[in-house]
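User: We ran a pulldown and think these components assemble together. Before we commit to crystallization trials, I'd like a predicted model of the whole complex to look at. Sequences follow.
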Amino acid sequence: MSEYTGVRGTVWFRAFTGQASPMDGDPKSVLTGDAPLGNEHARFLCVVPDLHGRFPCARHGEVGLEEAFTLATRVREVIEQDKNTIKRPIVAIVDVKSQAYGRREETAAIFLAAASAADAYGSARLAGHPVITLVVGHALSGAFLTHGYQANRILAFDDDGVMIHAMHKEAAARVTRRSVDELEKFAKEIAPMSYDIRDYAKLGLLYKLLHVENPEKPSPHEIRSVQAELVGAIADARRSPVHLRNRLESEGAREMRKASILVRTKLEAQWLGK
Amino acid sequence: MSNEGYSASFINRQSFIELDARERAKALFDAGTSRELLGPFDRMESPWLAMQGVTPQEDDGCVVMKGKIAGQAAVIVALEGAFQGGSMGEVSGEKMTATLDLAAADNEKGIRTNAVILLETGGVRLQEANLGLAAIAELMASILALRKHAPVICLTAGTVGCFGGMSLAAGLASYIVMTREARLGMNGPEVIEQENGVEEFDSSDRALIWAIHGGEQRYATGLADALVDDDTPQVADTIRSFVSKGVPLLHRSSQVALYRTRIAKVDTSRQWDPKEFRALWTTNGSNKEKR
Amino acid sequence: MEQIEFNYPAKRRIRKRAHVGVVGSGDLEVLLEPTEGQVARVFIRTSVDGFRDTWKAVLDRFFTKYDGTVRIEINDAGATPGNVQLRLEQAVEVSER
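Assistant: Here's a predicted model for the assembly, 662 residues in total across the polymer chains.
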């Protein structure tokens, strides 16, 4: 139920754009589409599995070199095209297994590829594009930093198949010398470690938690409803500053990130000197 | 005892790697100009560690200092690799991000303020998982905002190196400075071996590790801007020169077309000898400075 | 995690505070601060349980030679008695520079 299946990205990409294909010249693992959203046009991006991809370690929904640079290219395209006009919304649909773990990837500097995609998303946000992330499945670690975490607003489904975390359960269990069950139980008690998306929501980083009966088979009504939420998120983003400091202003942050808020306050007080 | 075979510069070398985070940060400022912010006596420790049986550190493994470098205002944020592997937690993350934000605000007021980040880190601190990961995302956003005004210089000297989510922060930097001992990559050898087997990466093969992640390889393939000896005056000098250089015309992470083309050309049907890459990928991604 | 406290009689006023060490594996950090009253207070937080007697032995020995009225905080991750001794002496040295 909570395993990564790799189908949700395509499902939701098709739901919003009516397509399920990459742009010309792009690898099959990155779907990019421009489609109406509310009364404007948005660019949708999604990383999906490609069993015949060029890189053996990036065929099952991992974000690898090609995925990262394709995302960077397609996001920068929007920035360039909208240079002198209204800044289109950019929607990242996220269901990614992890970053790609491979020798080729490390040699060819996947750290830079990932940074380039994050740079593109972040630069789009700074330029005034509302960048919205919808987590429909898994959003792990380096993959999420690359595709999704630079957004103005993040939405997710309150579903067992949705997971945002820094390390997948098997690896975390191994590192902490526990069974996966023991790890899950232990993690549930410590808010930032929990694998439950409802606990993640308490950290104040999510704009909204949405309910859909079955994220792998949404009804037309549910799709329209989620689209309306995206439109709301876009409007909210447009009303706010373009930096991410507002993540500390949420109700959740005031409750769960008190130390962060205190650090910022004290640093400001000490900045100008004794 | 004879010193035959050892050069004077080697004998007189002052190891930078042997310094802890606080000493490293201090060494890079113009003499007498630095002070620490939110030091240990402010007791901003992690709220999450003691409850898990892990002893916290009062600066949460992150040292923040403000002062001058090459006569210009600068901040240095240094991660302590010996504490929890330099991993990013809620407090250490916010110390970094808030410092860069304050530097950006000063720049906007017309006070040119540079930033140097000393990264000895394995990435997210598992005990703080989602707050560590979120902190890295927010740090990346702050680097992007600051680097328009002033250079953000990343220095990784070893022995921990820079891995995990924090490698993306390095990737966004204006300049990357490394020693030969240092390593930089998204996934360390053990992680790759765990995920995809020993054939993919033999984590006991030290030569392979440095051939792929090491400072010399990164510099030779244009992914680091300077390769320095483990010598404190030389490191400080290099940092000074990048501060003086200012914001680069084009950041490495913005050179998408260049790198995308390079990736499209590689032969993925086999593993590569990292040395092949040196021939394929020289310069044009870096702002090289040779030492 | 264990929290251990010790008090020792003291009389000499100290001027400067000091911080030394890192909470690395087998190491510890020491925060030493001047305080009021004729007493030295030591607060230890350690991730290695069951060594109260060893801590007492090290500190008893340290305070036979040190008489500063201080508050000493120790965050420990499994340091040897030798290392504890070393860090305490370093802290004193820094506070008396």
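Strands of chain B lie at 35-37, 62-69, 72-79, 113-118, 152-156, 175-179, 226-228. That may be worth checking against your pulldown data before setting up trials.

User: Thanks, that helps.
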